[in-house]
TrEMBL record:
Keywords: Cell membrane, Membrane, Transmembrane, Transmembrane helix, Transport. Residues 52-500 form the Major facilitator superfamily (MFS) profile domain. The chain crosses the membrane at residues 50-75, 87-105, 117-136, 142-166, 178-198, 204-226, 238-259, 265-288, 300-321, 341-361, 368-388, 400-421, 433-457, 477-497. This is Major Facilitator Superfamily protein. InterPro entries: MFS (IPR011701), MFS_dom (IPR020846), MFS_trans_sf (IPR036259), Sugar_transporter_CS (IPR005829). It is found in: Cell membrane. It comes from the Bacteria. It comes from Williamsia maris. It is a multi-pass membrane protein. CDD domains: MFS_MMR_MDR_like (cd17321).
Length: 509
């Protein structure tokens, strides 16, 4: 079997007996000018189909890997480059600013300019920026390149997700593809610590370089397997330039303000001014979207309860997890004296659990409603966070950390595929890029805000670090993280109850 690319791609599938299974090729053109080919079965995918999924999932894996991996190398980078803690945070924050600030634009660009073109171009930029960042030793240059990589990821992620949702039919085929795709993303976050610990022993430059060659290999494979489609005819009337500038500006400013606030103060005039400026741009954005003929964000999409719930849950899930990981990383290295490799191996069971879940999550998504999976996953997160509060000097790994790590792995394995599936379910092909951009924006903004919040809590504690004990303010910060996740569980339960009530009005999407 092979892939035919003319004006549309037909994926031929065969089941285990060798007989052709049901295949449907869409005849309509989506909003990005792409003619969608839809796989209507989850069985017997061809080699080309699997390679396509590996390329798309691999790009998401690199994104998660990059975020977690570099964090482990920060102490070594600081020692070699003479960067203090406030400067080092920009190695991470630069990436988050680029990623969170441009995701909406990236999603819309993939719809307008073609998903294949946007995905491949952004993946190339990501790879080149990775290689260059490993070769320079100028602080500002490294931060700038991290920002560029974040922007590139902001285009590859929504483009990749929308390629999946416009290629695999909603139902078993899409659930299988999305479960593999999202588990790869979750695995990147989980295994990034392990890779980071190992590569840091070679040198911190290795953590910056590693994604480059991998991105090049994915690019070469992507050129061969991502279907070519007619280039859409785009003019200035199709582009919501005002919406792009105001939304991106609002997101960039709010992320910058939150990241900067722990250093200058939450009530400082500059911080307040940044939040006011962000709010003003947000109001301007909403006004533009309500009036534009081809808006960047069709406001009507927010009438979908399940879509809004998925985005809020994504922000809660990742915001709580990444901020908890940040605190535990400091605790293990600064208080307990663990090496980067030891710390990485301590987190390994969560990554292995997430990877193992890839073999069955598609069937789970078929049989269990996504709000239920989100509720269970967030409950696992809450249990893990609260269990960690038992940590005392002298406790063994199997007692104080392993139960938490296993619960976090379970939470990620359930939540990550569920929020991505729910965020794009029922959305038209023309707006898949928008929907995927929204959910990934929620993830990044949630992470940026919660890291800033827990940093502010620990920075304001004023406590003296005692070996073996939690860093100052850490119990309070973990309690805040737990409460946030509990609110996420409550929201999911409310959605479950509402969906079970009889309704005569269809959900607007």
């Amino acid at each position: 079997m092979h892939v035919h690319i003319v004006l549309r791609m037909t994926l031929e599938l065969s089941d285990s007996s060798g007989n052709e299974t049901d295949v449907r090729t869409a005849s309509s053109v989506d909003g990005g000018g792409a003619v969608s080919s839809v796989v209507t079965t989850a069985r017997g995918w061809s080699t080309a189909t699997w390679v396509l999924l590996v390329v798309l999932a691999g790009a998401l894996f690199l994104d998660g890997l990059d975020v977690s991996m570099v964090g482990v190398a920060l102490p070594s980078m600081g020692a070699d480059l003479g960067m203090d803690q406030s400067q080092l945070q920009w190695i991470v924050s630069g990436y988050v600013l680029g990623y969170g600030g441009f995701l909406l634009l990236g999603g819309r660009a993939s719809d307008l300019f073609g998903r294949r073109t946007v995905f491949l171009a952004a993946l190339a930029v990501f790879g080149v920026a990775s290689v260059i960042s490993a070769l320079v030793e100028v602080n500002s240059a490294i931060v700038a390149l991290r920002f560029i990589k974040g922007v590139a990821a902001a285009f590859t992620v929504p483009a990749g997700l929308s390629i999946i949702t416009t290629t695999f039919a909603e139902g078993p085929a899409r659930n299988k593809a999305l479960s593999i795709y999202t588990v790869c993303g979750a695995s990147g976050f989980s295994l990034g610590l392990v890779f980071g610990g190992l590569l840091t022993e070679v040198g911190w430059q290795a953590t910056l370089l590693f994604p480059g060659p991998v991105a090049v290999l994915l690019l070469i494979a992507g050129i061969k397997v991502i279907p070519s489609v007619p280039r859409p005819a785009v003019n200035w009337g199709h582009l919501d330039v005002g919406g792009a500038l105001t939304s991106t500006g609002a997101l960039l400013i709010v992320v910058y303000a939150v990241v900067r606030a722990p250093d200058v103060g939450w009530a400082a005039p500059s911080t307040v001014g940044l939040f006011v400026a962000s709010a003003a741009l947000l109001v301007a954005f909403l006004t533009i979207e309500a009036r534009h003929r081809n808006p960047l964000l069709r406001l009507g999409i927010l009438r979908s309860l399940t879509l809004v719930h998925a985005n809020i849950s994504a922000a809660v899930m990742f915001g709580s997890y990444v901020s908890f990981q940040f605190l535990v990383t400091l605790y293990l290295q600064d208080s307990l004296g663990w090496s980067p490799i030891a710390m990485s191996l301590g987190f390994l069971p969560a990554g292995l659990l997430v990877v193992a879940s890839a073999f069955g999550m598609d069937r789970v998504l078929d049989r269990v409603g996504t709000p239920i999976l989100i509720a269970i996953g967030l409950t696992a997160f809450v249990a893990g966070y609260l269990l960690f509060l038992r940590a005392q000097p002298g406790m063994g790994y199997a007692n104080f950390l392993l139960p938490t790590i296993l619960l976090l792995g379970l939470g990620f394995a359930l939540c990550f595929p569920a929020v991505n599936s729910q965020a794009t379910a029922g959305v038209s092909d023309a707006e898949q890029g928008l929907a995927s951009g929204l959910v990934n924006t929620s993830i990044q903004i949630g992470g940026a805000i919660m890291i800033a919040v827990v940093t502010a809590i620990t920075a304001s504690s004023g406590g003296t670090q005692v070996p073996g004990e939690m860093i100052g303010g850490m119990p309070t910060a973990i309690t805040v993280i737990s409460v946030l996740s509990m609110l996420g569980v409550a929201g999911s339960l409310a959605v479950i109850i509402r969906r079970r009530r009889p309704s005569t009005t269809p959900a607007a999407v």
